[in-house]
Amino acid sequence: MNFRKNSIKAWIAFTACITITIFTFGADIPPYNNQLIKLKAKEPTLTSHSFTSKRTTTYYWEAGPSNGPLMIFVHGWPEIGLVWRAQMETFASEGWHCIAPDLRGFGNSSIPKAKEAYAIKEIVEDMAELHAHLGGKAAIWVGHDWGSVIVASIASHYPKISRGVVLISVPYLPKGWALPNLIPSIDRTLYPAEKYPDGQWDYWRFYLTHFDQAVNDMDADVRATLASIYTKGIPFSVGKLSPSAVVTANGGRYGAAHRAPATEPDYTLWPQPDFDTLVAAFSKTGFSPCSSYYMNDDANIAYANLAVNKGKLNQPVLFINDEYEPFSNINLSKIGEPMRSACSNLTVIDQPSGHWLPLERKLELIETIRLWVKLNELK
Asked: What is this structure's pTM?
């Protein structure tokens, strides 16, 4: 596809200036100096609530004026709504009505036992019900990891309630975020099929073949598991073999130990009180409910095929790519191509970050969303 390129200079926040490259169907925004990024004013307090429908109970965090434009933040695995604290506090201080639910299977929301209860269709329906409870105004939906899958599915199945979509780390796959749809995008130079048939997605295969062991190994020491998972990105890991490609060969995420190694939490990612809340949440639920998201490939593919407009998204879409991410980094494979084809108004930015970008690049994420909102006149 040929893109007509224009260059626009946009001043960000108070003093920062970056160059944005706009294409007819999208844009690439280069990263900028962290020293120039500032948070505004005094952050408002997050309050917690729960909403119960005939189907489920959804626990959520809220900040900002209830009559402000609605921005809903959707977390991924293994997160809870508090992962968005920095973004919610800042946007709420700027007049946005900010909401961050705990998805089903996480935190204080419903914890169904059946694995099929964690199919994407069920989660989307949960979010649609929560959205109606909040007043039904079209929202900007922001997602990370599995949260990106959810908000993209909301946009493709309920376009009227989504006026803009922010996807972080995980790109939109119109045919469904499922292992069979990820295999064709694997870089076979790095992951030869005869040795790494599932490439960097081998950890997903391990859930399918050894679900109980995968869960039990993580449950053995919840705090150590979470501390070992939440680490910053490593620049020199880009283009190298991902540990996720050898989970099966190693006999599990933690190998013969069957438990996470003793690891000190990085409190520059999760502030200590929030990390303690995270640990308490997973100590209550365990890792089985949240890991069941990986167990519904067939249902998720079938649901994707029911999307409005054949899965094409006409809302403004912002994709933020974490450059040190070994799984779904769109610079390392063709995994981003379906998204580029399906989104008529797509903006793409690279950030020097690992997978936990909302924690590792809190302020950069705020500024990126803020600028994208302004460019698309969403506020």
From this structure: 0.91
